[in-house]
Design a protein that fits this description.
about 120 residues, alpha+beta, OB fold (Dihydrolipoamide Acetyltransferase, E2P), six-stranded antiparallel beta sheet, three-stranded antiparallel beta sheet
């Protein structure tokens, strides 16, 4: 499994890349592998301010639908438009073109409190 060192991770298998106060968020390589082939991504929270651990959307695989949990509090500013026509990008490039949302983070220090690469690797075994 691939867990880039520059990212932060959650126990719910989301990743966060922080650039200033803007976070890019997606699901981890482990999560996409567990879900299987992604067929649909449903995110309709653009412009909404949400608390950490609130649901910001869902991802549908061939056999299941899973909720997506916001790692930190903030306002969703953008949804990855590529996923509308190419949801499989979540499987093929989870840390690149398969990102899900961008958001303005309320407290950037909260990102540093998330799991680092090593802690996440221990979590998923």
């Amino acid at each position: 499994m691939n867990f880039p060192a520059e990212l932060r991770y959650t126990k719910d298998h989301e990743w966060v890349r922080l650039d200033g106060n803007v976070a890019t968020i997606g699901i981890t390589d482990f999560a996409q592998h567990e879900l299987g082939d992604i067929v649909y991504v449903d995110i309709n929270t653009t412009g909404k301010t949400l608390a950490a651990e609130e649901i910001f959307g869902t991802v549908e695989a061939v056999k299941t639908v899973s909720d997506l949990f916001l790692p930190v509090a903030g306002t969703v500013s953008e949804v990855n438009a590529l996923l509308e026509k190419q949801p499989e990008l979540v499987n093929t490039d989870p840390y690149g073109d398969g990102w899900m949302i961008k958001m303005t983070v309320t407290d950037t220090a909260s990102v540093n409190a998330l799991l680092n690469k090593d802690a996440y690797a221990v979590l998923v075994g």
